[in-house]
Structures are given as C-alpha cells and as structure tokens.
Design a protein that fits this description.
Blueprint (H helix, E strand, L loop, with lengths): L1 H10 L3 E8 L3 E5 L5 E2 L5 H15 L7 E4 L10 H5 L5 E4 L1 H11 L2 H10 L3 H10 L11 H6 L3 H4 L1 E2 L1 H14 L3 H11 L9 H4 L5 E8 L8 E11 L5 E11 L3 H19 L4 H5 L2
Antiparallel strand pairs: 1-2, 1-9, 3-6, 4-5, 7-8, 8-9
Helix pairs in contact: 2-5, 2-6, 4-5, 4-10
Length: 279
C-alpha cells in the first residue's frame, strides 16, 4: 500500500498528502506531516470542538437559535441562506445548523457555530484538549472570503486529521458526537472521491470534503476528503487525502482521491482482520 501510494503521488502534477490509520494501529502516510489547506474539511474539527466546548464549559445550548439576515452572508456557498432568504428573523435548531455545515458545506452555518462557541480561540483550546495539535483553525469562512490567503492558514497535516477522525470514530459515545457521525455518514458531497469505490464494496463511510477555487494560473487551490471507513469484513480505518495546487480539472482531481481510496481498499481486502487487530 505504501509503495503504490508513493508512486501515485510522485507521478501527479499536484502536491498530495495522505494518511491512513488502519484498525487504530497501523499508519501509512505520504507527506503525512506537511500542512495542507483544509478548506471545508475544517468544518469537521469545528463541529467536534463545539461538542467539547459545550461539555467542558457546561454551556447550556438552547433548543432554538435565533438568527437574522446579517448572520447569513451573501456571496458565499450557503443553501441555508437560500432557504431563509425571505425571512428577516430565523428561528432554527442547532441540529439544522450542524446539518447544513457538515452535509452541505454551508459556510454561513459553519460561522454560526464558531460564533456560538466564542470564536477560533475556543476551537484551538478544544482541539488541544482532544490532543489535536497540528490542526490550525484561525479564521471564519467570512474572513477567508475577504482574504483568500487565509485558506492556507486554516491547515492540517494528513496524519493529524486522520488521528482526530480515528479518535472520534472509536470514542463517539455521547449524543452530540453520535449526531455528528450520523451527519457525516449521510453526507451528500464528494460522491466521486473517497466514497466512489467504497459504496459498491458496501462499506460504511463518514466523511467531510473540502473544495477550493481555481487560482489565477488555472490550477486548483485544493481538493480534499477525509473520513472513517468500516468494511464488511471488520476492518476499520480513518483516511485523510489533501490535494493542493492541482494541475488537473475538478473531475480529474477527484479521480485521484478515488484512486487513492481504491488502493487502500484493495490492499485491506487481502489482509485478515486479525493481522491488524493484533499488530
């Protein structure tokens, strides 16, 4: 697996980072400690940090959240804004906001969550409590919209993201975490990325995608996907794939992620579960 992933990364006109943690024990990585822009993948650690913040601060989360039109910024990806476009005052629940953020990559929903938990400094504190030290969240989606270079500062290493996802997959034993897991497993984005070879294999996948814009030189800023996978034979793994500065179009870049997913899947099919569980 390591050899095939290395060869794939070396032959592509893009910078590729990969980390796979198999059955919570074995790790395979390419550029595993290099920082990559997360883009909307960062909505997953924000959601996880939000749950930690609520637990550790004993913050009461109201059943209903009241928003105004000012909370739903224009000129950004926001299906939630489109739904409530005719309303001056919006009353909704945190479950709906989380669903828009994690399932539809809604930028306004993500920023609302950041606001509810008091900003990026509290995200950093929560991630450190979760032993995630190589995941940097320094700005909101609105700030990235105003200053696109901030996309590079909201970064993670592939190994840090895979570790966070592995921890989450093994320990999500509270209602808030179970809701995050449900949302990730019913995510509607990125069908041609990690999920493409996994759906026919009848695997369970919970994941979060990230998609960047086209740079002035015609290259893609970044295209990402990260999540956890449970195979029917009992193998489970977390996987993070970050592709930066791609010289390919979106379809071709997504295919690289699907090919990486297929390589991991094909090798794990050959390995009895006992060999990794007992490693």
């Amino acid at each position: 697996m390591q050899q095939e992933l290395n060869e794939l990364a070396e032959t592509k006109d893009a910078t590729i980072g990969i980390a796979v943690i198999i059955d919570g024990k074995d790790t395979v990585a390419v550029n595993g400690h290099r920082h990559f822009p997360m883009l909307s993948v960062y909505k997953f650690p924000i959601a996880l940090a939000f749950g930690d913040h609520l637990r550790t601060s004993n913050t009461f989360l109201p059943e209903n959240v009241t928003l105004t039109k000012n909370d739903l910024k224009p000129d950004t990806h926001s299906p939630m804004r489109d739904k409530y476009a005719e309303m001056d005052t919006i009353r909704t629940g945190i479950q709906e906001i989380m669903a828009y953020s994690l399932q539809h990559s809604d930028n306004n929903a993500s920023d609302i969550i950041l606001g509810l938990m008091g900003g990026t400094n509290n995200v950093k504190a929560s991630l450190h409590r979760l032993n995630a030290f190589d995941i940097n969240i320094v700005s909101t989606e609105a700030e990235m919209h105003e200053s696109p270079d901030l996309c590079y500062k909201n970064s993670s290493t592939p190994i840090a993201m895979a570790k966070l996802i592995d921890m989450f997959d093994r320990k999500n034993d509270d209602p808030f975490s179970r809701e995050i897991k449900h949302l990730m497993e019913t995510c509607s984005t990125g069908e041609n990325r990690l999920a493409k070879p996994l759906v026919p294999a009848k695997a369970i996948i919970g994941h979060k995608t990230g998609t960047g814009f086209t740079l002035p030189n015609g290259r893609l800023l970044a295209v990402n996907d990260a999540g956890y996978v449970h195979l029917p034979d009992g193998h489970r793994y977390s996987i993070a794939v970050f592709i930066e500065n791609s010289g390919y179009n979106m379809d071709e870049t997504e295919k690289i992620i699907a090919d990486i997913s297929e390589i991991v899947l094909s090798h794990l099919k050959k390995i009895p579960v006992s060999e990794t569980k007992n490693a």
